[in-house]
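Researcher: Hi, I'm a grad student and pretty new to this. My advisor asked me to get structures for two proteins we've been looking at. I'm not sure of the right format, so I'll just paste the first sequence and hope you can take it from there.
Model: That works fine. Here's the first sequence with its structure tokens right after it:
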Amino acid sequence: MLKVTDRAAAILKVAKSIEGSPEAGVRIKRGPTSNNKSIGVGFSNSDGPEEGDLELERNGLRIFVEDALVGPLQDRTLDVRNAEEGPLLVFH
């Protein structure tokens, strides 16, 4: 199952609170890729899960993972890396 660090959850919570209602969550979904060897991942605010989504909760944040990403993100950890432009969400 996908793990989410406390730091990653805190960053996602801030992003969600800017636009979403308290009951809403963050959806991890497929995004564009730069090559055929990687999987593109994006994040969006969501009022709830879509059919087939995996539902997680971390520090009061609801997280929905698109069904097509459940397998590829199995046993991965969503974390934060410091970058020059600011915090960057990464999967390990």
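Researcher: Oh nice, that was easy. Here's the second one.
Model: And its structure:
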Amino acid sequence: MNILIVDDHPLVAVGLADRLRTMGHNVVVSHTIDDASHQLRDLRFELCVLDLDMGGRRGTEILADPGLSDRQPDCVVILSGTGDRDEIVGVLDEGAHAFLPKNIPFEDVVDGLMAAPEAYRGGEPGIWVQEVRAYVPLGVVYPRGSTLSKREREVFRLLRRGYSDKAIAQELRRSVHTIRVQIRSILRKRGTARRRESH
């Protein structure tokens, strides 16, 4: 299997690549988004392992690149240390097929990568649940209504940057009333009473 690892931490990427090569896979490592884009144009990959935080850029930029629309890997796994449920849902919404946490034992990371293509197979994206050592469909881990919608995540991103209701409304071109309704929903879903606590 051709595997692309996109991670700006050399120790993580090289260690993982070495392990996968011993299993007989052809592995290419990219430490930048730009290099990963070049690799995708040059070779067809069955699996892409994508870090979320790439030195100020998001790994998911690759998924949104129109120049790579016909060069996307068959299966894209986000390998990240984030535990934020809305960020996890967000990256799966952006086109990734599976989410695998970085903070599990190394051999479980390897097992999770190998299981991802079969677990997805065109179905609902999955989240690796360490207790069962398997991917569980997104909608089972985070039932509908328990996470922020795409529009609420846009509001939440600006909330965390300290924007006022009016500034958020101007930035997103929505009414202040709509923004306030969305903020109330965000606070309810995140189990907080005040916007400061939701950050």
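Researcher: Is there anything I should tell my advisor about the second?
Model: You could mention this: Residues 165 and 180 are 7 Å apart (CA to CA).
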